[in-house]
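Many groups now describe folds with learned vocabularies. In that spirit, our science desk offers one protein's residues alongside their backbone shape tokens.
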Amino acid sequence: MPEGPEIRRVADRLCHQLVDKPLQSAWFAFPELAGQGADLEGRRVLAVESWGKALLTYFDNGRVMYSHNQLYGVWKLHRSSQEPSTRRSLRVRFQAGGHAASLYSASDVSLWKSDQIGQHPFLSRLGPDLLSHGVSAGDIEERLVAPKFRRRALGGLLLDQGFYAGIGNYLRSEMLFFAGLAPQRRPVDLDVSQRARLATVMRDVIHQAYRQAGVTNRPAWVEREKRAGATREGWRFAVFGRDGLACHACGNEVSRCMVTSRRLYYCPNCQSD
């Protein structure tokens, strides 16, 4: 499933396609929304924002559309006159300026008043979004030592969307590696410098993944792997998916374990703290 950086990039593409253009049409496949498309025609999209793995599309009439792609949903951007080649089921379509944004296969879509969107049952359980909510390293340090989180093992905590939204499996492994921390460590076990390092790494890694389309590895290590003939999956990550291979930093073997029923990759030597 895409993680926060990938969803944020989708939001960027939708913004480019839709923002500040009067909607020529709005269509919903869902019976409970079908009659509301006409209310959006002629309206403008003000913004498309990501919150974790959800997208929020804001309209100038005070409405906002919540959508979550879940496992199979996908947005396709295309000319209004050219139907995408797909066997997926169309769920939502917005047309503006001769172009269209079409959502396929998603099953979780709803319309809300903008001042009530925080009451959505999924969003109300989410923590802040590291990409969309202006989170600083200092904010992360404070949240790490909050009573609700301070005694949680980091390997599980980083996947808890109530802690910070948008961190998924590959980001968890990469963040812990670059912070030099073992997954069983807890925020309460860390000293001030370790918490500060983790907070900075969390913010830096997710922003790099956003800017570089999912790449979290260091540039020098990427270039080394490329020269050796590695494919993108071979140079994209520092540790994720690299069990049995040499750690880029120390040369020891990268290991894999299961934490919260998900794969976690780490270097036992570099993450000895």
About this structure: The chain has a mean pLDDT of 96. Residues 137-266 form a domain with the Helicase, Ruva Protein; domain 3 fold (CATH 1.10.8.50).
